[in-house]
Amino acid sequence: xxxxWTRACVxxxxxxxxxxxxxxxxxxxxxxxxxxxxxxxxxxxxxxxDRGLDVNLRHSSDFGNVWGGWYRERASGFSQWRTGWDRMVxxxxxxxxxxxxxxxxxxxxxxxxxxxxxxxxxGAGLGRTNLRPYANxxxxxxxxxxxxxxxxxxxxxxxxxxxxxxxxxxxxxxHLHLNWRGSRxxxxxxxxxxxxxxxxxxxxxxxxxxxxxxxxxxxxWFLRAAWDPKVNFxxxxxxxxxxxxxx
Length: 247
Prior knowledge:
By secondary structure, this protein is mainly beta. 3% of the residues lie in helices and 59% in strands. It contains 1 helix and 15 strands; from the N terminus they run H-E-E-E-E-E-E-E-E-E-E-E-E-E-E-E.
């Protein structure tokens, strides 16, 4: 199995970026469930091409976000079930988000993220796992620290700068995200995420690459496309296409 899929994943970075730190996806829509289906194409690096299928279902309530997912690679036959929980709570001037994550194969992980500020905000997070095999569908460095700062405007627009830095097994691996979320007419939304990554690959080569993802949300449906070179700091590049619905 490629190490791309054996690195452990923490939820804090993904939740902080995708949710722009604390706004829940679909907040106010009255739809508690979100179903996402993703097709991931791996290519290059002198290795055989492969495709992965990911299915994820999330439920949001006062208890927090509870989700379950299944991932399978077509060529290798590797598959894994996973589940997790996270919730944002207010503690004085701070918003604190703990998370836990479990997966088949004995994986266990957890994270803690905290931020403060309203229009202008800043936050930090830390994640730790037991380093058991796990399909890293977070794609950022893992067992990592996260540092985030940004600006939010009325109507849901936001601009965020997020650094995710491995501080355990591969301390030179870094992801820097510049994320912009803008509201569109008809309660629609466009999110653009520019990625600058640097660090050492599995084969010892040092790289610096740029990636990008774009997401368009309608009130019920959404589409996402992403280009991630040297995904998970391996030799291969990945094109990801995802679609989903809220209900």
